[in-house]
Amino acid sequence: MSNEAPRDVGVRSVERAIAILDLLAQGEWRTGAEVARGLHVHRSTALRLLATLERHALVERDQRTARYRLGRRLPQLASVVSGEFDLRYVARPVCEQVAGATGETATFELLIGDDIVPIEQATASTSVVTVNWLGRRYPVHCTASGKAILAFSPQAVRERVLSGDLERVTSRTITDRAELEAQLEGARQSGVARTHEELELGLDAIAAPVFGANGEVVAALDVSGPSHRLGRPDLERLTIEGAADLSRRLGFRGRRSET
Question: Read out DSSP for 52-108?
Fold first, then answer.
């Protein structure tokens, strides 16, 4: 009977699964027996791990030869990582420039599923907001970036998000769909979206959409800070200019008509 704790067994299985991927990354189809020899484990153990990886499309098996190779999901995962890295690389200098010009926090944010996810951030030395937003997930309807992205997204995207549960995060969060849709129309006219203490009391934000080379909205540039400082008239211009700079860097040459 093994004295290993369940957690240790789980960690060992993960390590072996990673070793299988490394082995198959050498570019050859391999049988279960070959994988077992490469990992120095019993063939049944290797086959069990391979079956799990196959269910998640991380490896695939040739039905005729019963040999394995890397699966189709790995390129999909790699494209997400490389795409986010490229976007962060492009966004970093613009976020720093906008943060310096506004004296506030500038954040580059994506719509992933039905959540807003910040992936790059710069904070001015004069900013009193020190929250690290990176990697967190926030509701779309109570973030300036979420509103900016929704305003310029296809109707199908707006319908999907606005028909869901609109959580009241603070006492100022707008949960009325008609009011939100009116704000989105205003954002389309002005080029920016705003929130007033809707995500966090005392915090306001302004955001402008960022467009990709295909003319579709891909992200938003958000400037956030204390409510009493976000009413400055130059913030809209600086946010729009920063978002336009990002769009140009991503190859944007003109918007597609809304579908």
Answer: HHHHTTSEEE-TTT-EEEE-THHHHHHHHHHHHHHHHHHHHHHHHHHHHHHSSEEEE
Q: What is the Cα–Cα distance from 247 to 234, expressed in whole angstroms?
A: 20
Q: Which of 85-89, 90-94, 105-109 has the lowest mean pLDDT?
A: 85-89
pLDDT in tens, 110-154: 998 888 999 899 988 766 555 677 778 889 999 999 999 999 999
Structure tokens at 215: 């003319």
Q: Of 31, 37, 33, whose CA–CA distance to 67 is shortest?
A: 31
- H/E stretch holding 223: strand 217-226
Non-local CB neighbours of 55 within 8 Å, separated by 6+ positions: none
Residue among 204, 28, 218 at smallest CA distance from 128: 204
Does the domain at 6-71 match CATH 1.10.10.10? Answer given as yes
Q: Where are the domains of the chain?
A: 6-71, 76-249
- What number does CATH give the domain 76-249? 3.30.450.40
